[in-house]
Design goal:
Length: about 120
């Protein structure tokens, strides 16, 4: 499958901010929903946020009010602005492209994935 590329991860202190970016080299996002997922050690992969082709958004309860997903269709870029980071946000964050233009919140409905970028939050 075609790889997506994430960037922007790093190590921050509690309350800090990071912006993650995702790009699809050699292809466009077209009319597909995009999403962010994360996976911490010993945990299952979990949904973080998604955005439809028409920029309708959905967020997991644990990030509402702190994270913002956005997309630039002309630039084939999707971003995740993360504010008020907590130690429990520590995980590898993955960008994904859906098969559908509609909003998707489950991993099974995403076709293409990036390699992940590490986000670490210290207390």
């Amino acid at each position: 499958q075609v790889q997506l590329i994430e960037s922007g991860g790093g190590l921050v202190q509690t309350g800090g901010s990071l912006t993650l970016s995702c790009v699809a080299p050699g292809r466009t996002f077209d009319m597909r929903a995009m999403g962010w997922f994360r996976q911490a050690p010993g945990r299952e992969r979990e949904f973080v946020a998604s955005i439809s082709w028409t920029e309708t958004t959905s967020y997991a309860d644990f990030v509402k009010g702190r994270f913002t997903i956005s997309r630039d269709n002309a630039k084939n870029t999707v971003s995740l602005q993360m504010n008020g980071l907590k130690p429990e946000d520590t995980a590898i964050y993955y960008c994904a492209q859906s098969r559908s233009a509609l909003l998707q919140t489950t991993a099974e409905n995403y076709q293409f994935w990036g390699q992940g970028t590490q986000v670490s939050v210290s207390s």
